[in-house]
Design brief:
mainly alpha
Length: about 280
């Protein structure tokens, strides 16, 4: 069984900010942490190739848009994980007074938030298109999702106040509630009308259950109450969620869309009056 060469849990204050090569060296020395990044890089690359092959015969416009938005998820992920593996989007931050690890430097993988801010809106766009949602609901879900990711990033980077870290966290969770409302209340009825409810409900449950795992991991990890202090454990937990929430999700969705283009093509956006006035109308 692989053992970490250097445990990247909280370390003593060094008095100087680490350079990018120094951060990269620390990541390289922790085998398990490094593997949590490269496993996703490899899976994202394979997923891109497979999804392109899967969509080779997709020619219905709405289905093509679902494919493009879903394909962007592993494309964004592979770039993000290279950033993490290279130490570009990782920092060591000193935790503020009141934190369980106050005064100690904690490795913060803030690049993950950039990934989520770019990839999760694409997941929601694909789900909304599958459900036949209108632009208002799509806009609401996607903007709330971006707000959730950005405020989550603020929670991770705030070291001036322990209370403010948790206040940012609560704001992020509030945005998440809006996303959950659209997923669980608005879109299921749209999908029922569109005739895509069976696959949509499967993907909805998968998405909600897995996405709930992210704030839980944050809260329990070294950035939160530090019940889990080991950074490689936290990183693997995030990576495992990413693998299922992105690549498995994408396969289930795209495999269904590739075989049901006619259903997608017959699905107008709900809540939109598509009737055009005739020349004789007043």
């Amino acid at each position: 069984m692989l053992e970490s060469a250097v445990e990247l849990t909280p370390v003593a204050q060094t008095g100087a900010e680490l350079t990018q090569p120094e951060v990269y060296q620390r990541v390289q020395q922790d085998v398990l942490l490094n593997l949590s990044f490269w496993a996703n890089i490899a899976l994202a690359g394979l997923s891109i190739l497979f999804f392109v092959y899967l969509g080779r015969n997709v020619d219905e416009p709405r289905s093509q848009l679902i494919f493009v938005s879903t394909l962007l998820v592993p494309l964004v992920s592979i770039a993000s994980y290279v950033g993490l593996a290279s130490g570009l989007t990782i920092s060591f931050l000193e935790m503020p007074p009141g934190h369980a690890l106050a005064g100690e430097e904690v490795l913060t993988m803030w690049g993950r938030y950039l990934t989520w801010a770019l990839s999760t809106p694409m997941i929601l766009l694909a789900l909304g298109l599958l459900a036949g949602s209108n632009l208002t609901k799509l806009f609401t879900a996607i903007t709330a999702d971006i707000g959730m990711c950005v405020t989550g990033l603020a929670a991770a980077l705030t070291v001036s106040s322990h209370g403010l870290r948790w206040f940012w966290y609560l704001i992020s969770c509030t945005f998440f509630i809006v996303v959950l409302y659209v997923l669980l209340v608005e879109w299921p009825s749209d999908a029922e009308i569109a005739g895509t409810s069976e696959i949509f409900n499967t993907l909805k449950i998968l998405t909600v259950v897995l996405w709930l795992g992210y704030p839980i991991i944050w809260g329990l990890g070294s950035e939160g109450i530090a019940v889990i202090e080991s950074v490689w454990v936290t990183s693997w937990a995030y990576s495992a969620l990413d693998i299922v929430a992105k690549y498995v999700f994408a396969f289930l969705l795209l495999n269904w869309v590739a075989s049901n283009q006619s259903i997608i093509g017959e699905t107008p956006a709900t809540g939109v009056d598509t009737a055009r006035p005739t020349p004789g109308d007043d």
